[in-house]
Amino acid sequence: MKLLVINGPNLNMLGIREPDIYGRSTYADLMAMIEAHAKKLGAQIECFQSNHEGAIVDKLQEAYFNGVDGIVINPAAYTHTSVAIADALKAIRIPTVEVHISKVDEREAFRRVSYVRDIAVSTISGKGFAGYLEAMDLLVKKGYES
After folding, report:
1. Nearest to 102 by CA among 124, 126, 78
2. How does DSSP classify residue 49?
3. Residue 39 and residue 61: Cα distance in Å, rounded?
4. Chain centroid to CA 76: how far?
5. Catalytic residues, which ones?
6. 75-130: per-residue pLDDT in tens?
7. pLDDT, tens digit, for every residue of 9-66?
8. What is the C-alpha to C-alpha distance for residues 117 and 39, in angstroms, rounded to an integer?
9. pTM
10. How far apart are CA 95 and CA 97, in angstroms?
11. Where are the alpha helices (DSSP H) in 5-117?
């Protein structure tokens, strides 16, 4: 199975940005965990992070043409603002799991809005980095067809 993990703005600053919310582990730590888990699952993995909405949309469209079987996405701040990312996910119809490191539904009111949630096959929130691994397990074990 070919999986794509997409991370939105400021996730490259993990370990630095609000460690009381996101922890002290770095983005490199997250990538190492994801790559090790993919190997354990026998899945091919590609990871992508961008602070730019258009780059994320481009990557989603590219996934359609590159035979990606499942997407794990943490749109970060774009969760609450990006119709463009939601529309790209609707267009490509690749099974997607939305992931958030923190419990977004327990934070500021604006964070309770997700343009991705209704498109995703599942949302995993508040489980830290483990949420990414759970999302990968879900996609691989369910074997969603795009």
Report:
1. 126
2. E
3. 25
4. 8
5. 22, 100
6. 999 999 999 999 999 999 999 999 999 887 776 776 678 999 999 999 999 999 99
7. 999 999 998 778 777 899 999 999 999 999 999 999 999 999 999 999 999 999 999 9
8. 27
9. 0.92
10. 7
11. 19-22, 27-41, 53-65, 83-92
Q: What is the pLDDT of residue 68?
A: 98
Instruction: Give the pLDDT of residue 99.
Output: 98
- Amino acid symbol at 71: I
Query: Do 68 and 26 touch, CB atoms closer than 8 A?
Result: no
- pLDDT score for 4: 98
Which CA distances in Å does 37 have to 21, 41, 135? 24, 6, 11
- Give the phi and the psi of residue 98 in degrees, each rounded to 5: -85, 130
- Output the six-digit token pair for 11: 């996730």
Look at residues 82, 52, 53, 86 and name the one whose alpha carbon lies nearest to residue 71. Answer: 86
Supply 111's token pair.
Answer: 């964070």
Q: How many CA atoms lie within 13 A of 127 on its CB side?
A: 12
Q: How far apart are CA 105 and CA 39, in angstroms?
A: 32
